[in-house]
Specification:
Chain lengths: 235, 291
């Protein structure tokens, strides 16, 4: 398995406040990798840094052999990284279709075929295609957020807290979708509070505490790790 | 008589809509309240004046020139000046555009003097009379052009990739970046379009009234009121806001007195800010532009 995303000794923060310290991790082609950690551990800051919304102070981000440290978000998206951000961040005043179209802004080939594919994955979105994204339910909005990210035909999909605020049944169906996306050849790096769920769906995981990676390993091992059980699974 | 006043108000409103569209777009997307908007419009007036007076070119033919020259001007200003401070506090941006306004007004005063100028082609005095309402051909043409350009802008923002990227950026800057939109480029295009529309409205203004560099502030204020009335970043809003301001100004000038028209226009703006701060057509999310 070749390495798709490689992060080496990444340091960053806001103003004078350092959030991430020497983060080193990788995502291989075809993998689902989980990033666990409590609130404030720095997971979202890490995701934001990967997509160019936050500047790295030092360290390296290499994607598909290309150095993307502090590249513009435009270049990062074009190189094949998409994100389903925390809080969904849809264009509330645009329709579902327009939101999906915007996902293909950096990569506009076969756009109609791609949008058809999204509607096949999420038939509900086809029914709501002319509605404003801001008027949709939380689950539908998350479908749009995933669909928008997929419109870029990414090699790596970053997913940040996608189950937050959603009904368990909706989360279950979205997990299935994420697994299908992965089977189609897209690597996934997922940040999630629901540790049990994310360890079951991923192959490997990293645990972040106060801006540092403290534990890493196979998800199947971590799910039985007493420390993980105690800290995150409440067992 | 009332019909004539209403028609005059609507014709004036068409101009206000055009000058307001560019201002409102720039404010809604880049969060820059461009205090130099009126001065940029006057650059358009002087382009038309110069070409008509010195090169004897029909003023309507000068419109694309004005549009293109000020598009380039706006693009360069945003790319090499505004983008440097776009993340600064809004107060810094206000000072910057205020400084630019002073610079442009003095530049125009130096080159064209502070005298009032006007563009009066042969057909300036011709008019059409329908049901007792007299409409000068030029004002009718200016109104038609304002409406067409405003409609084209609406189409551009709704249907083209760049237009959609501009809207997306105004709705959520970071989400736009996550889809690969470059805010620097979008800000430059938006400011360029705002300047080009200002220049176009200035060229049209030169056909309907006398102008001098000193009216720049008044034009910016009109654009400001239109943007507040209509709602930020919305073409339909600027269209309605422009017509409303034109009609109210004309009617109040006639019935209450010319000297009260500014007080009434600003009263209207304050009223709108109290009862519906997002403007006539502004929706909640336009008032929550994330930057």
């Amino acid at each position: 398995m070749s390495v798709l995303l490689e992060v080496k000794n990444l340091n960053t923060g806001y103003g004078d406040l350092q959030i991430l310290r020497n983060i080193t991790m990788e995502v291989n082609e075809g993998e689902i990798v989980a990033l666990l950690g409590s609130n404030g551990a720095g997971k979202s800051t890490f995701m934001r840094t990967l997509v160019g919304l936050n500047r790295a102070w030092s360290g390296e981000v290499i994607f598909n052999g290309i150095k993307l440290t502090n590249a513009s978000s435009e270049k990062i998206v074009k190189s094949g990284i998409s994100i389903v951000p925390e809080g969904r961040r849809l264009f509330a005043g645009m329709t579902v279709t327009e939101n999906l179209y915007m996902g293909a802004f950096a990569n506009r080939k076969n756009i109609h075929e791609r949008i058809e594919k999204i509607f096949q994955i999420f038939p509900r979105l086809f029914e709501r295609k002319d509605h404003l994204a801001g008027d949709l339910s939380g689950g539908e909005q998350q479908m749009v957020a995933i669909g928008r990210a997929l419109m870029n035909e990414p090699k790596l999909l970053l997913i940040d807290e996608f189950s937050l605020g959603l009904a368990p049944a909706v989360v279950e169906s979205l997990v299935k979708v994420v697994q299908d996306i992965n089977k189609s050849g897209v690597s996934i790096l997922i940040v999630e509070q629901d540790v049990q769920m994310v360890l079951e769906m991923s192959q490997r995981a990293y645990v972040m505490e106060v801006g540092t990676i403290t534990i890493s390993g196979k998800s199947s091992d971590l799910i039985n790790d007493p420390k993980i059980k105690q800290a995150y699974l409440g067992i | 008589m009332i019909l004539q006043i209403l028609v005059n108000g609507i014709l004036l409103g068409g101009f206000y809509a055009l000058i307001g569209v560019g201002f409102s777009l720039v404010w809604g997307v880049t969060n820059i309240i461009n205090l130099a908007h009126g001065a940029i419009a006057l650059l358009g007036s002087y382009i038309t004046y110069y070409m008509f007076q010195n090169l004897h070119i029909d003023p309507f033919i000068t419109l694309p020139v004005s549009f293109i020259v000020l598009y380039i001007f706006g693009y360069l200003v945003q790319r090499y000046l505004m983008n440097m401070v776009v993340k600064a506090q809004i107060f810094m941006l206000l000072i910057l555009t205020f400084g630019m306004e002073i610079f442009l007004v003095n530049f125009m005063t130096t080159f064209f003097s502070a005298d009032f100028r006007s563009v009066t082609p042969d057909y300036a005095g011709k008019s059409i009379e329908i049901a007792g309402v007299v409409v000068p051909y030029i004002r009718l043409a200016v109104f038609a052009i304002c409406m067409i350009v405003t409609a084209i802008m609406g189409f551009f923002l709704e249907k083209t990739w760049t237009g959609k990227a501009i809207r997306a950026t105004s709705l959520d800057l970071e989400a736009a970046m996550m889809t690969g939109i470059s805010p620097r480029k979008i800000y430059s295009i938006t400011f360029a379009l705002g300047s080009a529309l200002a220049g176009l409205s200035g060229s049209l203004l030169s056909l309907t009234q006398a102008f001098s560099p000193n009216i720049a502030g008044g034009l910016t204020l009109r654009a400001f009121i239109v943007a507040i009335l209509g709602g930020l970043g919305r073409v339909e809003g600027a269209f309605l806001g422009g017509l409303l301001l034109g009609v109210i100004e004309t009617v109040s000038s006639f019935y209450i007195g010319e000297s009260y028209k500014n007080a009434i226009a600003f009263g209207l703006m304050v009223f709108m800010l109290i009862v519906k701060p997002s403007g006539l057509l502004g929706r909640k999310y336009y008032a929550e532009v994330k930057h």
